[in-house]
Protein 1
Amino acid sequence: MRKKEKQMTDPAEIDAVLLNNKICRIALSDNNKPYLIPMSYGYDKKSIYLHCAKEGYKIDIINKNNQVCFEVTDSIEITQGNKACNFSTKYRSVIGFGSIHLVNDQQKKIKALHILMKQYVGEQDWQFLPASVNNVQILEIQIESITGKKSGY
């Protein structure tokens, strides 16, 4: 990172960004053609879980190339200056790399759905209908590396 003073080094702060947000952007590559998708997600301090349809372009790419980059940003605030070039942005962001995998085991899918629901509404005892679990594709990002950056904190 070029500006070391903006680097987030505390793992708890990186976890806070991932645990307290709602949208994760994933970047995939299809024959050197980038594809970026904003998705709802759940984070359990080890993996990022996503859900989607069982078919589509994203699934086609993952089946060919499961390398992924992901990004989550929070606390975005524009800070105004008295001149155009004195404006800035206050934020915290996390970028990571890993591999993304289709989760097809029923019990693992249910576990992932609980993590996703917790991300949005907190811990609750959700019941998932078997047909609903069967109809959704769960994706798991196994995190290999992760960095954080902040400005204005």
Note: The CA atoms of residues 123 and 147 lie 27 Å apart.
Protein 2
Amino acid sequence: MDIKAIVYTSNTGYTAEYAKILADKTSLPLYTLKESKSIEKGTPVIYMGWLMAGSVKDYNKAVKRFDIRMVIGSCLGTTGSMTDSVRKAHKIPSEIPVFTLWGGFDMNKLHGIYKLMMKIVGKAIKNKILKNPTQTEEEKKIVDMLDHGGSAVDEKYLEPIIQLLQ
């Protein structure tokens, strides 16, 4: 893959953490979407963003500027849990790798409409999990994150991506 940079959007910092780890591991230059104006239009990049309602935030802005060769979204769900919905939401061709990584959640870092939305959506997610008598450890951690905030960011979730880039 002839990728020249990593471009990302982060809201509460979890996508930024993953982007920094990936940049360190690959030696690719790292830019926020706002900083990326200095990158030539059409440059091949990895685009990373946080997931909201099954889509990667600001993907549509990034795809207008760059040749996106890989899409990575961080989410409240477990790693790999939403790749199909991301691909479908953005009509990403099958040859473009799509990854979703378990990020984290912190209600105190959310503002405005995002905070209001997550109060509603978070409650629904939590209730759905709690109704299940056989909750997984991951589901229990999601409930804990919704109640208390927390991070699941872990370098190990980037390993398949790093291997693909080598």
Note: The radius of gyration is 16 Å.
